[in-house]
Design brief:
alpha/beta; 3-stranded antiparallel β-sheet; 18 helices; 20% strand
């Protein structure tokens, strides 16, 4: 089977994206994940350009990678420098790697206007830099920057730059669509012309400014290119790089090309989410293959069909990429959605159960009020249990009071919550402070309950979102509060809606606690 080489540049090109900054420790952890995924080359950064990258190359020497090779990135030598005197080339060698990638100019406009040298001088920079590195390293790759734009402007010179790279001994010449403006039909024609006149292993490196980076990469591979560059989740400058999270499964599952193993492919979603978490970004739920919504079904007709035969609305089995099928609940839901969720939750509901119609009716009423359960499945499970008459009740609220007090103009306000609850026959009355009214209420509720349910000490608030859902009403608008909670083992979402943000938060907090206590109770009973 034809083998595709995967080259990841998340740690270099990916970090050029707005809002992205990885520490050297982050980069080490990501490199390990990429190695587990089966990436063959991991571009670690530009040694000598900043202390963070220098620290990474020092630390990565002790990393025991299974298969991946670490690559150092840099440019051709500077004008006027001999290769042996060039600081950039020296930094590549000093990094301790066995593989380096350097880029050079393929577009005559860049040579004349950016470098301000002659076209022949640029060709000499390319060939001499590669020749110098090739004698001292195991492998050297050449990124032909702006190649497709350069070819469209001056095809003869663009090809001359590739021949200079061949003469320098490049192990692979990577054709770069640096500005991301080339369309698949253009790329195909240009690539065929290159292949007809150049005998060298070729790679592809595309950007997504025209939203076709993945398509361009697949076109190149289909024409015989075996070296594929990209980033996980498509991270990169401007609109991003070619997205390996889409490219890898497309190569493996759609084009039947050998790039990663079946087991490695199953770690794709985990790797995608891991990198997003370290970048401190929100997950793109609509991302193909690895997003939460990639195999999510909402319309009742879709759900009815997918329950009978998943391929009716799923192009692959989600488990192949480490994802899973999800059925959403909303006012678009039909009986099939509810039955699916009931089965997933272990709740005994069948198509003839009168509780099924009650759940559907309640769902439509609540969504009309502003509730949404797509990110709050714990609240929806509790709703289903209530309709079946087995809603958990671990405590009763007698009352709470929340006070905000601001004493000085330039100081933050003080928040205090007092709460009285009843657990069994015992009444607990306590108070707590917080950095805001919701935090104070959460602290007071936990303080009151933890003496009865110590397992709540493990629960932490992971995410808290407030959204206005009745625009045009100003400060009297209704709000929806979504809370994500976790206990180190599981995560669950809950929701509340009210014109009072404290009340909406209270609803979501109570659902979160009841759900945790319910699951622990069921766990003990089933042990």
């Amino acid at each position: 089977m034809r083998k595709i080489t995967l080259y990841d540049t998340t740690l270099r090109d990916g970090t050029q994206a707005e809002d992205i900054s990885f520490s050297s420790e982050d980069k080490i952890r990501i490199a390990e994940k990429l190695d587990d995924l089966g990436i063959h080359y991991i571009e670690g950064g530009w040694p000598g350009s900043n202390p963070k990258d220098m620290h990474f190359f020092e630390k990565v020497k002790s990393l025991q990678l299974k298969d991946a090779k670490i690559v150092a990135f840099g440019s051709t030598r500077r004008v006027g420098n001999k290769p042996e005197d060039d600081a950039n080339l020296k930094a590549l060698l000093d990094s301790g790697v066995e593989v380096a990638t350097i880029f050079g100019k393929s577009w005559d406009m860049h040579v004349k206007d950016a470098l301000k040298i002659s076209l022949d001088e640029n060709l000499e920079l390319i060939s001499s830099s590669l020749a110098y590195l090739k004698k001292r390293l195991g492998e050297v790759f050449y990124d032909a920057e702006h190649f497709f734009d350069g070819y469209k402007a001056n095809p003869d010179y663009a090809m001359s730059s590739l021949r200079a790279a061949m003469e320098g001994g490049a192990d692979c010449i990577i054709l770069c669509d640096t500005n991301g403006g080339t369309l698949p039909l253009e790329l195909e024609e240009i690539l065929r012309n290159v292949q007809a006149s150049l005998e060298s292993p070729l790679g592809i490196h595309t950007h997504n400014d025209s939203d076709v980076a993945v398509a361009n990469t697949l076109v190149a591979v289909n024409l015989g290119v075996n070296h594929v560059q990209g980033t996980i989740n498509g991270l990169g400058e401007r609109c991003g790089n070619a997205n390996l999270s889409s490219i890898i499964p497309n190569l493996k599952l759609k084009m039947d090309l050998n790039c990663v193993s079946d087991d490695q492919l199953k770690s794709l979603r985990e790797t995608s989410r891991f990198i997003v978490e370290l970048a401190n970004l929100s997950h793109n739920k609509h991302q193909p293959y690895v997003g939460n919504s990639a195999f999510a079904h909402k319309g009742g007709i879709h759900v009815s069909a997918v329950l009978k035969k998943p391929e009716t609305y799923e192009h692959i089995k989600p488990e192949l990429v480490g994802n899973h099928q999800r059925v959403l609940v909303s006012d678009l839901s039909g009986r099939s959605n509810i039955l699916y969720k009931a089965k997933a939750f272990g709740i005994d509901v069948d198509s003839k159960d009168k509780a099924l119609q009650e759940i559907l009716g309640e769902l439509k009423v609540l969504e009309n009020q502003g509730f949404q359960f797509e990110g709050a499945e714990a609240s929806f499970e509790l709703l289903m249990r209530k309709a079946k008459g087995n809603e958990p009740k671990f405590f009763d609220l007698i009352g709470f009071r929340v006070i905000d007090e601001k004493r000085k103009e330039n100081e933050p306000p003080l928040s205090e919550a007092t709460i009285m609850i009843k657990v069994g026959g015992h009444v607990e009355h306590t108070a707590s402070v917080g950095n805001g009214p919701i935090n104070a209420l959460d602290n007071a509720l936990r303080k009151a309950l933890e003496k009865f349910f110590p397992e709540l000490k493990k629960v932490s608030l992971i995410d808290f979102k407030v959204r206005v859902i009745s625009a045009g009403e100003g400060t009297a608008a209704s709000v929806r509060v979504l809370i994500e909670s976790g206990d180190g083992r599981d995560k669950w979402g809950t929701v509340g809606v009210s014109q009072n943000v404290v009340e909406a938060s209270w609803q979501a907090l109570v659902d979160s606690i009841n759900y945790k206590l319910l699951k622990d109770k069921e766990g003990r009973e089933n042990a």
